């Protein structure tokens, strides 16, 4: 499972850095990163990542709107939503649109790995 390829999407560079560090420490490959939903769709189309970690609240296009568009251009990608506390309704909306799991900020490595295992075992 360590050969999984990730696209990390968050408008906060700090959050992308934290997540990329966690993933690379586990032997995963981060093939790209984006700061909004529009860039995420373009990168998903080009990179076809195994897993996309997708922030909910971003400028230009939020994660909720990006979910179905990412799945159109990269149907095999699994999407894990990244949410702040109090965004449960938006997470449910994203899952209805095709996201497979979610993690809450600040990220706990054990929960990130659990979400990865969850989406890859489905």
Describe the model.
By secondary structure, this protein is of the alpha/beta class. It has one domain: Rossmann fold, CATH 3.40.50. It is 46% helix and 21% strand. The protein is built from five helices and five strands. It has helices at residues 13-25, 37-47, 63-73, 88-96, 109-120; strands spanning 5-9, 29-34, 51-55, 78-83, 101-104. It has a five-stranded parallel beta sheet with strand order 2-1-3-4-5, with helices on both faces. Strand 4 (78-83), helix 4 and strand 5 form a beta-alpha-beta unit. The longest helix is centred in the N-terminal third of the chain and has 13 residues, at 13-25. The mean pLDDT is 95.
Task: Give the secondary structure arrangement, pairings included.
Blueprint: E1 5-9, H1 13-25, E2 29-34, H2 37-47, E3 51-55, H3 63-73, E4 78-83, H4 88-96, E5 101-104, H5 109-120
Parallel strand pairs: 1-2, 1-3, 3-4, 4-5
Helix pairs in contact: 2-3, 3-4
């Amino acid at each position: 499972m360590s050969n999984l390829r990730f696209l990390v999407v968050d408008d906060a560079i700090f959050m992308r850095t934290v997540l990329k560090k966690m993933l690379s420490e586990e032997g995963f490959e981060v093939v790209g990163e984006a700061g909004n939903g529009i860039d995420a769709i373009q990168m998903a189309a080009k990179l076809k990542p195994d897993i996309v970690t997708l922030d909910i609240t971003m400028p230009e296009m939020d994660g909720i709107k990006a979910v179905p568009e990412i799945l159109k251009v990269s149907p095999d990608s699994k999407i894990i939503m990244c949410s702040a506390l109090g965004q449960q309704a938006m997470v449910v909306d994203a899952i209805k649109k095709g996201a497979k799991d979610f993690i809450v900020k600040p990220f706990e490595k054990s929960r990130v790995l659990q979400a990865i295992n969850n989406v890859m075992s489905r």
